[in-house]
Design brief:
Elements: H1 2-19, H2 31-46, H3 53-63, H4 65-86, H5 89-109, H6 111-119, H7 125-129, H8 134-138, H9 157-186, H10 199-212, H11 222-233, H12 240-249, H13 256-268
Amino acid sequence: MLVKKRYEELVRQIDALDNQLEPENPPVNYTPVVMTVLNEIADILSSHAFASDAEEIAFYKEGLIPLLSLLHYESEKYSMLRILYYGTEMDFNGHCVSFIRRITNLINRHFEFFSYCLSGRKDLDAGYFLRNSEANQQLTGIPGMTLSREIFAAHSLLPATMVGYIGNCRDIGAFYETSLEESDSAFPVPRTLQWTDSAVALSELIYALYANGSFNHGQATLKEITRYFERVYHIDLGNIYRVRQDMLYRKSGTTAFLDRLKKKLDDLGD
């Protein structure tokens, strides 16, 4: 009952803190808040004797999972929000791909255990959910395994990790759904529109727009303009400063693409 109560209080506390943040504020890491509660629970468990193996198994198999899952959910949520705040949409897309790969690897690495949990079986519960079992002492490869094996059954962290990550997956789905809705309602750009010229050509255009001060009354930096074009056209321009150096030394000059555009535009008037 204490764990359930502290979990509910923790969720309300985090929600309240989130509601106080303004949209432009940088993301806040709530993982230390969760760890404070887990350390409190650990202190209690260090001197607590369960009435029976069945009681201990029930606690680590079901009762502790929601609280432990918050540790993984908030940690991953913070990583994603930092990328959204400081990075680009391309950075976020790459992180999401890596995140899904981590989930897949976790399932594959512990496939037998997850299959057991989903089967509804109970015959191996003593090995998986008693703290001092040999299986828990030998378990490795758990994300965020910073909690004492003597206090927390190691196998409890695996389903807790998955529960937390499922919450992160919902956040990702909601983000992309909202992004598409906002894009469609504010400016219905065809989703199949792609930059099919060379990356060097786009870099040349970006440099010209930057030199002309075409964005934010000339206050936008070259990096900001580059990242904007990368996000819009789903392209990785790499080190644009290096591209500029290559442009300076090419035989066709530094404005080959712009010269071609000018000719095309002039031809339209014929």
